[in-house]
Design goal:
This protein has a 6-stranded antiparallel β-sheet, with no helix packed on it. Helix content is 31%, strand content 38%. It has one domain: Ribbon (CD59). It is an alpha+beta fold. Strand 1 and strand 2 form a beta hairpin. It contains 2 helices and 6 strands, in the order αββββββα. The protein starts with a helix and ends with a helix.
């Protein structure tokens, strides 16, 4: 086996090991409570082994004024939506979305998941290594 094949094998093994090590740390979710909808949230590791990253968007209507706030968190279950709940004369519509990949509960889409980034990296490395072998 020549040195380029050994190097290729080592790079691929290292990449797989890094991906597995990150997954062993647990699911990462954005975490914040009752913040304006456009606000960014910090991330945290989910304490539940089989949890969900959840985003709840609450739309509050008071008279002719509407405002949106969000909660982002990790929960052991995926809660169901609550359509048009009335609380003390105020109409609140709560929409939940659940997912199970790292940092997938952003209200505004982010750059992509860890697995997407790893796929791009693997593809890039693979094409470079193929060019050196040919």
């Amino acid at each position: 086996m020549n040195s380029s094949h050994v190097m290729t094998s080592c790079v691929l093994i290292l990449l797989v090991a890094l991906l597995c090590a990150e997954r062993a740390q647990g699911l990462k979710c954005y975490n914040c409570l009752a913040v304006p909808y456009e606000t960014s949230c910090a991330s945290a590791t989910c304490p539940y082994s089989d949890g969900f990253c959840v985003t709840q968007v609450a739309e509050v209507v008071v008279g002719s004024h509407t405002s949106k706030v969000k909660n982002s968190m990790c929960l052991p279950i995926c809660p169901s939506d609550q359509e048009n709940v009335e609380i003390l004369g105020t109409t609140v519509k709560v929409k939940n979305s659940c997912c199970k990949t790292d940092l997938c509960n952003a209200a505004v889409p982010t750059g992509g998941s860890t697995w997407t980034m790893a796929g791009v990296l693997l593809f890039s490395l693979g094409s470079i290594l193929l060019q050196t072998l040919l």
